[in-house]
Design brief:
The chain is about 70% helix and about 0% strand. The chain has about 400 residues and is mostly helical. It has a single domain, classed as Up-down Bundle (Formate dehydrogenase/DMSO reductase fold). The protein is built from 16 helices and no strands. The C terminus is likely disordered. The protein starts with 11 loop residues before the first helix and ends with a helix. The protein is globular and about 60 Å long.
């Protein structure tokens, strides 16, 4: 009898994930036992840092593919997108769960996060965001629950959930519209603090439109990675159509940004030699202009590698935008710069790693992917081919009898 090698299942990625999670666990202990000051570089000038700028603002926006695709399939009845609905809903659900986890790190008193449920303040944008995130996370859980129930053969419960699918999707779209835009509303109260290239009365609209574009990019990103990781087919025609939706939203977003700058007479800021200008151009060129021009071409959309790279560009541009608004755009007013500690970074990377692990676990144990590899259709014989075979058969029979 041979003993199994305990290290046989260790791979580079598993070891890397383990190291990341251990670093995150240490940072978690320091943050909760030592407070925000011991684990972060947050100050009175920068009360919101990486955990809000990336974990919350980016996390919520990147999960927007869930309500976008669900609306396309169930409300607009475009059923051909059904094969990619389940992984997209799971990505959105995990995204919102991880946003809540990230928020728990940032709150000064995280154990009081439940206060928004009973201590109402309807005039607060944060109150509205809190309720929308709670409700939409619940909606996503219900939308995804049939996938889990199939594993345990809970057919009756599945039938009940499917009967309320359309109302759930409609509620989800409304909730997403509210809190995606409300995250932009948070910054409307700081016109004298946020740099002019990013501050606008239309921030809520910018947040909503850019989230839809980023959500489309995340659908492509997730589909590409999962097809490689789980060795399944890639729904390239569907993803090419998703990219077309993303192109439209990028075009709308770019048009609104240009009109807004013109309306505020802020074009001069585009050519002011300072850090904010360079980072603004970087987010616009990488995340908006370049993918808009490239994905407008059918040849690019139908190329797997090009499609994936453009999706990555949109995501990077989206992240840059949210980080610029939450950090870069506030540095001029604060008179100082902010850079997160290694513990802030380790917590964020741990949260993202946890999301990948949960997605991989679900993909291995649930019927997540609707993609089916079809066997190639048999070649149909033409009439003359059939006649030729018949003649050949008769000739052989005659030769045999002779």
């Amino acid at each position: 009898m041979t003993m199994k090698n305990p290290f046989s299942k260790l791979t580079f990625w598993r070891v890397t994930a383990g190291v990341i999670l251990l670093a995150g666990a240490y940072s978690t202990i320091v943050r909760y036992f030592g407070g925000l000051g011991a684990a972060t570089n947050l100050t009175n000038e920068f009360p919101w840092g990486l955990w809000i700028g990336f974990d919350v603002l980016c996390g919520v926006g990147l999960a927007a593919g869930g309500f976008t695709l669900a609306a396309i399939v169930y409300i607009f009845n475009v059923k051909r997108f059904e094969p990619i609905v389940r992984p997209t809903i799971l990505t959105a659900f995990l995204g919102y769960l991880l946003v809540i986890v990230g928020l728990m790190y940032d709150l000064g008193r995280p154990l009081q996060i439940w206060h928004a449920i009973v201590m109402w303040n309807p005039r607060s944008v944060m109150f509205e965001v809190a309720w929308c995130v709670m409700l939409y996370t619940t909606v996503l859980a219900l939308e995804f629950s049939p996938v889990v129930m199939e594993r345990f053969k809970m057919t009756r419960t599945i039938k009940v959930i499917k009967k309320i699918t359309i109302p759930l999707i409609i509620i989800g779209v409304l909730l997403s519209t509210l809190h995606q835009s409300s995250l932009g509303s948070l910054y409307l109260i700081v016109p004298e603090k946020l740099y002019g290239l990013w501050y606008s009365a239309y921030l809520p609209v910018f947040f909503y439109v850019s989230a839809i574009a980023a959500g489309c990019a995340m659908i492509i990103f997730e589909s590409f990675l999962s097809s490689r990781a789980f060795k399944r087919g890639l729904e390239l025609p569907l993803l090419a159509e998703v990219a077309r939706v993303g192109v439209v939203m990028l075009g709308v977003y770019l048009t609104m940004k240009v009109v807004d700058l013109a309306d505020r007479h802020a074009f001069g800021l585009l050519f002011t030699p300072r850090t904010e200008t360079y980072l603004y151009w970087l987010e616009m060129v990488v995340g908006v202009i370049a993918p808009l021009v490239l994905l407008a071409r059918k040849k690019i959309r139908e190329n797997q590698t090009a499609l994936f790279l453009n999706a990555v560009m949109i995501i990077l541009g989206f992240i840059l935008n949210r980080m610029n608004i939450s950090i870069t755009g506030m540095e001029g007013w604060a008179g100082r710069s902010y850079f997160p500690t290694w513990m802030e970074i380790s917590v964020t990377i741990s949260i993202v790693t946890g999301g990948f692990i949960l997605f991989a676990y679900a993909a291995r144990h649930l019927a997540l992917f609707g993609h089916v590899e079809h066997a190639p259709a048999p070649v149909r014989e033409s009439e003359w081919m059939k006649d030729l075979k018949t003649v050949s058969k008769l000739n052989l029979e005659e030769a045999y009898h002779e």
